[in-house]
Amino acid sequence: MNHAGWRPAASLAVIRARAAMLARARAWFAAEQVLEVQTPLLSASAASEPQVESIVVQPSHRESMYLQTSPEYPMKRLLAAGAGDCYQICTVFRDWESGRLHNPEFTMLEWYRTGFSVAELQRDVDRLVRTVIGDLRSLGPARQLSYREAVAACCGLDCRTASRDDVAAVLNEHAITLSAADDADLDTWLDLLVATVVGPRLGLDGPVFVRDYPASQAALARLRDDGDGWPVAERFELYLDGIELANGFHELADAREQRSRFERDLRVRRRRGQRLVPLDERLLAALEHGLPDCAGVALGFDRLVMSALRLPSIDAVLPFPIARA
After folding, report:
1. 3-state DSSP assignment of residue 214
2. Bridging pattern class, strands 35-36 and 86-93
3. CATH number of domain containing 262
4. Is 52:69 a contact under the CB 8 Å cutoff?
5. Which residues are 246's β-sheet partners?
6. Is 238 helix (H, G, I), strand (E, B) or coil?
7. Which of 61, 197, 200, 221 is disulfide-compatible with 235, CB 3.0–4.6 A?
8. Spacing of C-alpha 244 from chain mean position
9. What distance in Å separates the CA atoms of residue 91 and residue 199, rounded to the nearest whole number?
10. Which domain, by its residues, includes 265?
11. How many CB atoms lie within 10 A of CB 204?
12. What is the pLDDT of residues 136-194, one digit of tens each?
Protein backbone atom coordinates (compact mmCIF):
# COMPACT_ATOMS: atom_id res chain seq x y z
CA MET A 1 0.00 0.00 0.00
CA ASN A 2 1.24 3.49 -0.89
CA HIS A 3 1.34 5.71 2.21
CA ALA A 4 2.75 8.79 0.46
CA GLY A 5 -0.41 10.78 1.31
CA TRP A 6 0.08 10.59 5.07
CA ARG A 7 0.65 14.34 5.43
CA PRO A 8 -2.30 16.67 6.10
CA ALA A 9 -3.80 18.45 3.11
CA ALA A 10 -4.22 21.69 5.09
CA SER A 11 -1.09 23.53 6.16
CA LEU A 12 -0.31 23.88 9.86
CA ALA A 13 -0.93 27.63 9.52
CA VAL A 14 -4.46 26.92 8.24
CA ILE A 15 -5.06 24.35 10.98
CA ARG A 16 -4.05 26.92 13.61
CA ALA A 17 -6.24 29.63 12.01
CA ARG A 18 -9.15 27.19 11.97
CA ALA A 19 -8.67 26.43 15.67
CA ALA A 20 -8.69 30.14 16.46
CA MET A 21 -11.92 30.57 14.48
CA LEU A 22 -13.55 27.74 16.42
CA ALA A 23 -12.48 29.35 19.68
CA ARG A 24 -13.97 32.70 18.62
CA ALA A 25 -17.23 30.99 17.68
CA ARG A 26 -17.53 29.33 21.08
CA ALA A 27 -16.64 32.59 22.85
CA TRP A 28 -19.33 34.43 20.85
CA PHE A 29 -22.02 31.92 21.82
CA ALA A 30 -20.90 31.99 25.45
CA ALA A 31 -21.22 35.78 25.49
CA GLU A 32 -24.70 35.43 23.94
CA GLN A 33 -25.62 32.85 26.61
CA VAL A 34 -26.40 30.21 24.01
CA LEU A 35 -26.03 26.67 25.35
CA GLU A 36 -23.57 24.30 23.67
CA VAL A 37 -25.04 20.82 23.19
CA GLN A 38 -23.95 17.49 21.74
CA THR A 39 -26.20 14.99 19.97
CA PRO A 40 -25.45 11.54 18.50
CA LEU A 41 -23.69 11.02 15.19
CA LEU A 42 -25.71 7.83 14.66
CA SER A 43 -29.46 7.76 14.20
CA ALA A 44 -32.13 5.16 13.53
CA SER A 45 -33.74 7.62 11.08
CA ALA A 46 -32.42 9.71 8.20
CA ALA A 47 -33.04 12.92 6.31
CA SER A 48 -35.82 12.46 3.76
CA GLU A 49 -34.84 15.26 1.34
CA PRO A 50 -34.15 13.72 -2.10
CA GLN A 51 -31.08 15.97 -2.60
CA VAL A 52 -29.43 14.68 0.62
CA GLU A 53 -28.15 11.11 0.86
CA SER A 54 -27.22 9.57 4.21
CA ILE A 55 -24.36 7.15 4.79
CA VAL A 56 -25.61 3.80 6.13
CA VAL A 57 -23.69 1.94 8.84
CA GLN A 58 -24.31 -1.54 10.21
CA PRO A 59 -23.66 -1.93 13.96
CA SER A 60 -23.48 -5.46 15.36
CA HIS A 61 -26.72 -7.06 16.53
CA ARG A 62 -29.12 -4.33 15.36
CA GLU A 63 -30.70 -2.83 12.26
CA SER A 64 -28.90 -0.39 9.99
CA MET A 65 -28.29 3.12 11.28
CA TYR A 66 -27.43 6.40 9.58
CA LEU A 67 -24.64 8.90 10.12
CA GLN A 68 -26.19 12.30 10.75
CA THR A 69 -26.43 14.70 7.81
CA SER A 70 -27.29 17.48 10.28
CA PRO A 71 -27.94 17.70 14.03
CA GLU A 72 -31.25 19.44 13.31
CA TYR A 73 -33.67 16.72 14.37
CA PRO A 74 -32.16 15.91 17.79
CA MET A 75 -31.56 19.61 18.50
CA LYS A 76 -35.25 20.27 17.89
CA ARG A 77 -36.06 17.52 20.35
CA LEU A 78 -33.93 19.39 22.89
CA LEU A 79 -35.79 22.61 22.07
CA ALA A 80 -39.13 20.88 22.59
CA ALA A 81 -37.83 19.64 25.96
CA GLY A 82 -37.12 23.25 27.03
CA ALA A 83 -33.38 23.63 26.34
CA GLY A 84 -33.79 27.17 24.98
CA ASP A 85 -31.23 28.82 22.70
CA CYS A 86 -28.59 26.24 21.79
CA TYR A 87 -25.80 25.53 19.33
CA GLN A 88 -23.59 22.68 18.22
CA ILE A 89 -20.31 22.34 16.31
CA CYS A 90 -20.16 18.81 14.98
CA THR A 91 -19.10 16.46 12.22
CA VAL A 92 -21.81 15.53 9.72
CA PHE A 93 -21.80 13.12 6.80
CA ARG A 94 -23.37 13.11 3.33
CA ASP A 95 -22.95 10.43 0.73
CA TRP A 96 -22.15 11.24 -2.92
CA GLU A 97 -20.76 14.68 -2.01
CA SER A 98 -17.20 15.32 -3.16
CA GLY A 99 -15.55 18.18 -5.04
CA ARG A 100 -14.16 21.69 -4.65
CA LEU A 101 -16.82 22.64 -2.08
CA HIS A 102 -17.81 19.19 -0.81
CA ASN A 103 -16.36 16.40 1.31
CA PRO A 104 -18.47 13.45 2.55
CA GLU A 105 -17.42 14.32 6.13
CA PHE A 106 -17.49 17.98 7.13
CA THR A 107 -18.04 20.36 10.05
CA MET A 108 -21.37 22.06 10.65
CA LEU A 109 -22.16 24.89 13.04
CA GLU A 110 -25.88 24.86 13.81
CA TRP A 111 -27.83 27.02 16.22
CA TYR A 112 -31.38 27.92 17.24
CA ARG A 113 -32.83 31.09 18.72
CA THR A 114 -36.22 31.01 20.40
CA GLY A 115 -38.54 33.90 19.58
CA PHE A 116 -36.37 35.04 16.66
CA SER A 117 -37.72 36.01 13.25
CA VAL A 118 -35.83 35.19 10.05
CA ALA A 119 -34.63 38.81 9.88
CA GLU A 120 -33.29 38.65 13.45
CA LEU A 121 -31.52 35.38 12.70
CA GLN A 122 -29.90 36.90 9.62
CA ARG A 123 -28.46 39.66 11.80
CA ASP A 124 -27.26 36.96 14.22
CA VAL A 125 -25.51 35.12 11.38
CA ASP A 126 -23.88 38.30 10.10
CA ARG A 127 -22.54 39.15 13.57
CA LEU A 128 -21.27 35.62 14.14
CA VAL A 129 -19.53 35.42 10.75
CA ARG A 130 -17.74 38.74 11.25
CA THR A 131 -16.66 37.75 14.77
CA VAL A 132 -15.36 34.34 13.71
CA ILE A 133 -13.46 35.71 10.70
CA GLY A 134 -11.95 38.37 12.96
CA ASP A 135 -9.03 40.21 11.38
CA LEU A 136 -8.37 37.51 8.75
CA ARG A 137 -10.23 39.66 6.21
CA SER A 138 -12.68 42.56 6.13
CA LEU A 139 -16.21 42.18 4.79
CA GLY A 140 -18.43 44.69 3.07
CA PRO A 141 -21.93 45.38 4.39
CA ALA A 142 -24.47 42.58 4.15
CA ARG A 143 -27.19 42.81 1.50
CA GLN A 144 -30.52 41.04 1.01
CA LEU A 145 -32.22 39.72 -2.12
CA SER A 146 -35.33 37.67 -2.52
CA TYR A 147 -34.93 34.37 -4.36
CA ARG A 148 -37.02 35.82 -7.16
CA GLU A 149 -34.80 38.93 -7.37
CA ALA A 150 -31.59 36.87 -7.36
CA VAL A 151 -32.73 34.59 -10.21
CA ALA A 152 -34.04 37.54 -12.23
CA ALA A 153 -30.87 39.59 -11.77
CA CYS A 154 -28.53 36.75 -12.76
CA CYS A 155 -30.61 34.96 -15.40
CA GLY A 156 -33.44 37.23 -16.53
CA LEU A 157 -36.03 34.64 -15.45
CA ASP A 158 -39.09 35.01 -13.25
CA CYS A 159 -39.03 31.88 -11.08
CA ARG A 160 -42.79 32.15 -10.57
CA THR A 161 -43.63 31.73 -14.23
CA ALA A 162 -40.56 30.03 -15.72
CA SER A 163 -40.93 26.52 -17.13
CA ARG A 164 -38.40 23.70 -17.11
CA ASP A 165 -37.62 24.56 -20.73
CA ASP A 166 -36.92 28.20 -19.77
CA VAL A 167 -34.49 27.12 -17.07
CA ALA A 168 -32.90 24.53 -19.37
CA ALA A 169 -32.29 27.20 -21.99
CA VAL A 170 -30.32 29.33 -19.51
CA LEU A 171 -28.35 26.30 -18.36
CA ASN A 172 -27.59 25.36 -21.96
CA GLU A 173 -26.16 28.85 -22.50
CA HIS A 174 -23.68 27.99 -19.72
CA ALA A 175 -23.01 24.48 -21.07
CA ILE A 176 -24.70 22.86 -18.06
CA THR A 177 -26.91 19.80 -18.40
CA LEU A 178 -29.06 17.90 -15.94
CA SER A 179 -28.84 14.11 -15.91
CA ALA A 180 -32.16 12.26 -15.93
CA ALA A 181 -33.74 15.50 -17.14
CA ASP A 182 -37.01 13.91 -18.19
CA ASP A 183 -37.69 12.87 -14.59
CA ALA A 184 -36.68 16.16 -13.00
CA ASP A 185 -39.24 18.60 -11.64
CA LEU A 186 -38.97 22.38 -11.88
CA ASP A 187 -37.42 22.68 -8.40
CA THR A 188 -34.60 20.34 -9.40
CA TRP A 189 -33.89 22.50 -12.45
CA LEU A 190 -34.01 25.67 -10.33
CA ASP A 191 -31.67 24.11 -7.73
CA LEU A 192 -29.15 23.44 -10.48
CA LEU A 193 -29.58 26.96 -11.86
CA VAL A 194 -28.97 28.54 -8.45
CA ALA A 195 -26.02 26.26 -7.67
CA THR A 196 -24.21 26.78 -10.99
CA VAL A 197 -25.26 30.18 -12.35
CA VAL A 198 -26.85 32.34 -9.64
CA GLY A 199 -24.91 31.40 -6.50
CA PRO A 200 -21.40 31.89 -7.94
CA ARG A 201 -22.31 35.53 -8.70
CA LEU A 202 -23.46 36.36 -5.18
CA GLY A 203 -21.50 37.74 -2.25
CA LEU A 204 -18.48 38.90 -4.25
CA ASP A 205 -18.34 42.25 -2.43
CA GLY A 206 -19.82 41.23 0.92
CA PRO A 207 -22.31 38.78 2.45
CA VAL A 208 -25.61 38.35 0.57
CA PHE A 209 -28.69 36.83 2.17
CA VAL A 210 -31.15 35.27 -0.29
CA ARG A 211 -34.61 35.02 1.31
CA ASP A 212 -38.20 34.05 0.45
CA TYR A 213 -37.62 30.76 -1.35
CA PRO A 214 -40.45 29.15 -3.35
CA ALA A 215 -42.98 27.42 -1.12
CA SER A 216 -42.15 24.12 -2.83
CA GLN A 217 -38.61 24.44 -1.40
CA ALA A 218 -39.72 25.07 2.19
CA ALA A 219 -38.15 21.86 3.62
CA LEU A 220 -38.53 22.42 7.40
CA ALA A 221 -39.48 26.11 7.18
CA ARG A 222 -42.81 27.86 7.70
CA LEU A 223 -44.70 29.49 4.87
CA ARG A 224 -46.01 33.04 4.62
CA ASP A 225 -47.64 35.31 2.05
CA ASP A 226 -45.08 37.56 0.35
CA GLY A 227 -47.59 40.43 0.15
CA ASP A 228 -48.48 39.80 -3.50
CA GLY A 229 -50.56 36.72 -2.82
CA TRP A 230 -47.71 34.25 -3.39
CA PRO A 231 -46.71 31.78 -0.66
CA VAL A 232 -42.98 31.76 0.11
CA ALA A 233 -40.83 29.83 2.53
CA GLU A 234 -39.50 31.71 5.55
CA ARG A 235 -35.94 30.64 4.91
CA PHE A 236 -32.69 32.15 3.67
CA GLU A 237 -29.26 31.18 2.42
CA LEU A 238 -26.06 33.16 2.97
CA TYR A 239 -23.56 33.59 0.13
CA LEU A 240 -20.02 34.89 0.34
CA ASP A 241 -17.48 34.77 -2.52
CA GLY A 242 -20.08 32.95 -4.62
CA ILE A 243 -20.25 30.13 -2.06
CA GLU A 244 -23.31 29.10 -0.06
CA LEU A 245 -22.28 29.26 3.61
CA ALA A 246 -25.51 28.93 5.59
CA ASN A 247 -29.14 27.89 5.37
CA GLY A 248 -31.66 29.28 7.88
CA PHE A 249 -35.35 28.67 8.62
CA HIS A 250 -38.21 30.02 10.66
CA GLU A 251 -38.80 26.52 11.94
CA LEU A 252 -41.97 24.63 11.12
CA ALA A 253 -43.71 23.51 14.33
CA ASP A 254 -46.74 21.74 12.84
CA ALA A 255 -46.20 17.97 13.19
CA ARG A 256 -48.94 17.08 10.72
CA GLU A 257 -47.54 19.38 8.02
CA GLN A 258 -44.01 18.13 8.68
CA ARG A 259 -45.11 14.52 8.28
CA SER A 260 -46.84 15.44 5.02
CA ARG A 261 -43.61 17.00 3.70
CA PHE A 262 -41.55 13.99 4.76
CA GLU A 263 -43.98 11.66 2.98
CA ARG A 264 -43.84 13.83 -0.15
CA ASP A 265 -40.04 13.51 -0.06
CA LEU A 266 -40.35 9.73 0.11
CA ARG A 267 -42.64 9.69 -2.91
CA VAL A 268 -39.99 11.62 -4.87
CA ARG A 269 -37.31 9.21 -3.65
CA ARG A 270 -39.39 6.23 -4.74
CA ARG A 271 -39.98 7.71 -8.18
CA ARG A 272 -36.25 8.36 -8.64
CA GLY A 273 -35.19 4.94 -7.39
CA GLN A 274 -33.42 6.36 -4.32
CA ARG A 275 -33.15 4.59 -0.97
CA LEU A 276 -36.32 4.90 1.13
CA VAL A 277 -35.31 5.98 4.63
CA PRO A 278 -37.18 5.69 7.94
CA LEU A 279 -38.79 8.92 9.12
CA ASP A 280 -37.78 10.41 12.44
CA GLU A 281 -40.86 9.59 14.51
CA ARG A 282 -39.18 10.99 17.63
CA LEU A 283 -38.86 14.39 15.96
CA LEU A 284 -42.52 14.27 14.94
CA ALA A 285 -43.46 13.36 18.52
CA ALA A 286 -41.42 16.33 19.77
CA LEU A 287 -43.30 18.61 17.37
CA GLU A 288 -46.57 17.16 18.65
CA HIS A 289 -45.44 17.95 22.20
CA GLY A 290 -44.67 21.51 21.15
CA LEU A 291 -41.70 23.21 19.53
CA PRO A 292 -41.19 26.78 20.76
CA ASP A 293 -41.36 29.51 18.14
CA CYS A 294 -37.78 29.61 16.91
CA ALA A 295 -35.44 30.18 13.99
CA GLY A 296 -32.44 28.02 13.24
CA VAL A 297 -29.47 28.00 10.89
CA ALA A 298 -26.81 25.55 9.71
CA LEU A 299 -23.46 27.00 8.63
CA GLY A 300 -20.73 25.07 6.83
CA PHE A 301 -17.70 25.79 8.98
CA ASP A 302 -15.14 24.46 6.50
CA ARG A 303 -16.48 26.80 3.82
CA LEU A 304 -16.31 29.71 6.25
CA VAL A 305 -12.62 28.93 6.83
CA MET A 306 -12.15 28.83 3.04
CA SER A 307 -13.68 32.30 2.71
CA ALA A 308 -11.82 33.73 5.69
CA LEU A 309 -8.46 32.63 4.27
CA ARG A 310 -9.45 32.98 0.58
CA LEU A 311 -8.54 29.38 -0.18
CA PRO A 312 -9.58 27.66 -3.44
CA SER A 313 -11.10 24.42 -2.15
CA ILE A 314 -12.43 22.65 0.91
CA ASP A 315 -9.47 20.24 0.82
CA ALA A 316 -7.19 23.15 1.72
CA VAL A 317 -8.91 23.60 5.11
CA LEU A 318 -9.27 19.93 6.06
CA PRO A 319 -6.37 18.06 7.64
CA PHE A 320 -7.45 14.83 6.01
CA PRO A 321 -10.12 15.06 3.28
CA ILE A 322 -11.65 11.86 1.90
CA ALA A 323 -8.72 11.19 -0.45
CA ARG A 324 -6.35 11.07 2.55
CA ALA A 325 -8.69 9.57 5.15
Report:
1. strand
2. parallel
3. 3.30.930.10
4. yes
5. 238, 299
6. strand
7. 221
8. 8
9. 25
10. 4-142+241-324
11. 12
12. 999 999 999 999 999 999 999 999 999 988 998 999 898 887 665 556 788 888 999 99
